[in-house]
Write a structure and sequence with these properties.
The protein is of the alpha/beta class. The protein contains 7 helices and 11 strands. The radius of gyration is 17 Å and the shape is globular. It binds fe (ii) ion.
Length: 261
């Protein structure tokens, strides 16, 4: 567990009296119940801003509603692999059957304007003083998985901000680089000057770390702290919507992602 104690000094928004708290969320995967619960938790926790690391759609039954929620709030967002596949015309050969079924179904539920919005998303983005990416910084369109220090080291090579948030694995974890690259699970930590952080925020709609609760992060820029939040949501309703839509059921909780999920 990470327990460093120093504050960030490279973020202009750490000055001033008004707290600046970002709710950083991703891998929503069309789960409206989980997204609604997370946004309510963020509001109650005093978050002033949001950012999204991609995969708004895919797997669950409310892609359009989740997309509209993100757009209505005006949340800065990067493109995930499911956002890309659901707004394209072709389907990658090696997708798992559950992902493929959801992508084909999602395409039917989105308008051309929705797909255009998804297609226009960038792969990496600077938000305030931090950056966001869905998968990796060294190959943002390649959809590789950062699961160990070696793949994190490749991303750090391209990281220009002290903090970058990412998703894709659906497993919350922080990678840190000072003289070496280290990695650990986390619940809350303070960022330290001179150290870079590549932070996986977990998944709102499809957690895969053995904890069924929705995950997201609160980055308190004023305090220089990053906190992982876990939020209950109405799983029964999410699953009922899947059955109604004729979509495959939710995957059992798994610790590590498979390829092309
Ligand atoms: Fe995802």
């Amino acid at each position: 567990m990470l327990t460093s104690t120093c504050l960030s000094r490279d973020c202009p928004q750490s000055a001033g009296r008004n707290p600046v708290k970002y709710a950083v969320l991703g891998d929503i995967h069309a789960n409206l119940e989980a997204l609604t619960a997370v946004l309510e938790d963020a509001r109650a926790a005093g978050c002033t801003h949001h950012a999204c690391v991609g995969d708004i759609v895919g797997y669950n039954a409310n892609p359009k509603e989740c997309l509209e929620t993100i757009r209505e709030i005006g949340i800065p967002c990067v493109k995930g692999n499911h956002d890309e596949y659901s707004s394209a015309n072709d389907v990658p050969q090696n997708l798992n059957p559950r992902a493929k079924a959801a992508i084909l179904w999602t395409r039917q539920k989105l308008t051309e304007a929705d797909k255009e919005w998804l297609r226009d998303l960038r792969y990496t983005r600077l938000v305030a003083c931090f950056s966001i990416v869905h998968a990796t910084l060294d190959s943002p369109r390649g959809w590789g998985y950062v699961l160990d220090k070696f793949s994190a080291a490749a991303s750090f090579t391209y990281q220009t901000t002290s903090v970058c948030f990412f998703g894709h694995t659906h497993v919350p974890r922080v990678f840190m680089r000072d003289s070496v690259v280290r990695s650990c699970t986390y619940s809350k930590f303070k960022i330290e000057p001179g150290c870079k952080y590549f932070v996986n925020v977990g998944s709102v709609g499809e957690p895969r770390d053995g904890n069924p609760l929705a995950a997201y992060v609160i980055y308190d820029i004023s305090q220089g702290s990053i906190e992982l939040r876990r939020v209950p949501f109405d799983v029964d309703r999410t699953e009922a919507k899947l059955r109604e839509a004729g979509l495959p059921g939710r995957a059992p909780q798994i610790a590590l992602p498979r390829r092309n999920v």
